[in-house]
Structure formats: structure tokens, C-alpha cells
Amino acid sequence: MKKPFLLFTLLLSSLFADAPQKKVFHAQDDNYQNHYHHSSHVQDTEEQVISSTAQVSAEITMAITVQATTEITSENSRSQATMSFLDNNRVQITEEIAKGEGEYLNTLLSMMSIKNNNKNLTVLQNNLNELIYLSHNDFLKKIEKLV
User: Fold this and answer.
1) At what angle do helices 45-99 and 118-126 cross, to 10 degrees?
2) Is-contact 129 141, C-beta < 8 A?
3) Using CB atoms within 10 A of its CB, is residue 96 exposed (0-12), middle (13-18) or buried (19+)?
4) Phi and psi angles of residue 50, each rounded to the nearest 5 degrees, phi first
């Protein structure tokens, strides 16, 4: 007899019970700080400072890692793009070095972050015989060394 009575009581209480209200908490919610500060595992100012310092250190480390990865990726992409451009346009670039000017040569120098001025163009033109038979990688290194 106890089981049906217990079941009946449980059924009645569920019928009259209010549905739970949804509550959304946001990061750094003022209500959270005011009501739950003392239940936090961080109890004193020293621990809060250590916790904040650790968090900042982690964020700085992450930022440095992302920046270094971006720089490495950009550098590799730039050199791959430069090598690809040189591979596809080596004949035109060599002809333009011989002339001392040209669109392909200007583009290559720009990709290598080398100033396109008369002095640099003259140096390249005067050293064409040293450049002409080099591999792509040695060609680029020699240009960087010359100018």
C-alpha cells in the first residue's frame, strides 16, 4: 500500500511544481562575482594575483606562439612564392637584368624586399655573368648578397 501512495504523492507534486527557469551566466557577470566570490577556490588576494598572473602568462605565451607561427608561415610562403615566380619567369628576369630594367625584375626585387633603384639595377646588370648559371636558390642568395 505504501508504493501506490508514494507514487500518487510524487505524481501530485510534479503536477503542481513550477518548471525550472533557465538562467544564462556570462563571463565576468557582476552577479556571479557578487554571489559566488566566496565559493571560489581562490580565497585571498595573493592567490588571486597568482591566478591572474598565470592567466596573463598563458595568454602572452599563446600570443607569442601565434605570432611566431604566423611569421614562420609568412616567411615560408614568401620564399615559396618567390621561388615559384623565379621558376616561371627566369628567362624574362635574366633578360631584364641584362637590360637593367623590367617588370619581371621589379616584381622579383619587390618580392625579395630589395629596393628597386638605379644603383641596385646596375650592380645586378654588372654581375649578370655570375647569376646566369646559378640554381634558383643560389640565384636569390647571390642577388641578396650583391644588393
Assistant:
1) 60
2) no
3) buried
4) -60, -45
Q: Can you read off the three cell numbers belonging to residue 84?
A: 615559384
- Answering whether pTM is above 0.85, one says no
Domain extent listing, the chain? 48-146
Q: What is the DSSP string of 69-112?
A: HHHHHHHHHHHHHHHHHHHHHHHHHHHHHHHT--HHHHHHHHHT
Q: Measured between alpha carbons, how far is 42 from 138 in angstroms, rounded to an integer?
A: 59
pLDDT one-digit tens code per residue, 19-69: 555 656 555 545 545 555 555 554 566 666 666 666 666 666 565 555 554
Q: What is the CA radius of gyration of the chain?
A: 35
